[in-house]
Design brief:
This protein is an alpha+beta fold. It has 2 domains: 12-59, no CATH class; 63-106, no CATH class. Helices cover 45% and strands 14% of the residues. The chain has 3 helices and 3 strands; from the N terminus they run βββααα. The chain has a 3-stranded antiparallel beta sheet with strand order 1-2-3, covered by helices on one side. The protein is elongated, with a radius of gyration of 19 Å.
């Protein structure tokens, strides 16, 4: 992924739930503004721990995509000419396929 069409990171959870300030929405974004807002389940009055964990995972997305791109480059160029046993080669191929699939999903190509 050399160019991105998504809002560049870093992304972060902009507001955290506190006992004194429960809320129904959690926001993920940048200093420039919101990327997304997660709403609570209609049966709940405040954001759940799972919703908060989801928000942190979303906030990590640009960093995770960048790390996967680096890992893919490592697999493609550093391991291409290395002689591996059958098991290690299978594991390398599975890792490369998983990374490619995740990056394609991030680009909306899945």
């Amino acid at each position: 992924m050399t160019a991105t069409e998504y809002t560049p990171g870093p992304w972060r959870v902009l507001d955290l739930r506190t006992a004194e300030r429960p809320r129904e929405v959690i926001t993920v974004g940048t200093q420039a503004g919101a990327i997304c807002r997660l709403r609570n389940d209609v049966s709940e009055r405040t954001i759940s721990a799972e919703d908060e964990a989801n928000a942190h995972l979303i906030a990590a997305a640009p960093d995770l995509a960048a790390a996967l791109a680096v890992a893919l480059e490592f697999l493609e160029f550093c391991w291409r000419d290395v002689s591996l046993n059958e098991y290690a080669e299978e594991q390398r191929e599975q890792a490369e396929l998983a990374i490619r699939a995740a990056l394609a999903k991030a680009r909306g190509e899945d």
